[in-house]
Write a sequence for this structure.
């Protein structure tokens, strides 16, 4: 049987090379992931710049505009979630968690702008998981000391050390794979829809699919990644 995907030149959800350059004798490619990540970062920088300028222009005699109300609502929501999850340790990690949230969320919904979401590339999600793993390990040794870490590895018995080690090192893999797989699956579904169905079926329906695969699923996966990050870090800190 002939694979229908091979008959359609429109089905494309893979990472593409944009251009290459020579670096110390090695060919290095700039891919669609690099370009889309740069666009996402540029959007975040512009948003932060505009929001900062708007905050500086606040007049006590005037009510804030719609834009400032939206910014305040987002910040208050994130601050409340971080505070309720991490408690007294929230102030130490609020900047990191908010930065993580904005980057992942905008990356996830960038498909609405016609981009290939950077988080659909495991080369993006895995470093995010590694950063979280490094924070977990650092705070575990900082607050629990070496004795506490060893005690945790031996819980409930000393023979449990290999299993506990596997569990610790599985954290960045599970975090990154969960985010990567969910976003990539959305890209695949939308690519199949656009590439295989006739034109009259595509009228109006893609908007609903984009709302689910890009906006709804993107928001859920952002929340899950950040919530697990905060939970793991809080567990690593334990009772100071």
């Amino acid at each position: 049987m002939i694979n229908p995907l091979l008959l359609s030149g429109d089905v494309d959800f893979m990472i593409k090379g944009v251009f290459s350059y020579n670096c110390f004798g090695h060919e290095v490619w700039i891919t669609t992931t690099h370009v889309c990540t740069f666009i996402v970062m540029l959007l975040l920088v512009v948003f932060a710049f505009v929001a900062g300028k708007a905050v500086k222009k606040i007049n006590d005699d005037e009510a804030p505009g719609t834009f400032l109300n939206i910014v305040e609502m987002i910040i208050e929501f994130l601050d409340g979630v971080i505070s309720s999850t991490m408690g007294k340790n929230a102030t130490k990690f609020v900047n990191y968690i908010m930065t993580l949230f904005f980057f992942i969320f905008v990356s996830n919904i960038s498909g609405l702008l016609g981009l290939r979401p950077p988080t659909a590339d495991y080369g993006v999600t895995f470093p995010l998981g590694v950063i979280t793993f490094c924070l977990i390990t650092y705070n575990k040794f900082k607050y629990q000391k070496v004795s506490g870490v060893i005690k945790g590895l031996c819980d409930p018995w000393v023979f449990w050390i290999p299993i506990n080690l596997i569990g610790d090192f599985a954290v960045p893999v599970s975090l990154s794979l969960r985010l990567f797989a969910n976003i990539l699956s959305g890209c695949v579904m939308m690519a199949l829809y656009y590439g295989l169905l006739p034109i009259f079926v595509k009228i109006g329906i893609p908007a609903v699919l984009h709302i689910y695969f890009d906006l709804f699923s993107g928001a859920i996966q952002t929340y899950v990644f950040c919530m697990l990050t905060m939970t793991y870090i809080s567990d690593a800190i334990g009772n100071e």
Summary: The chain has one domain: 16-237.
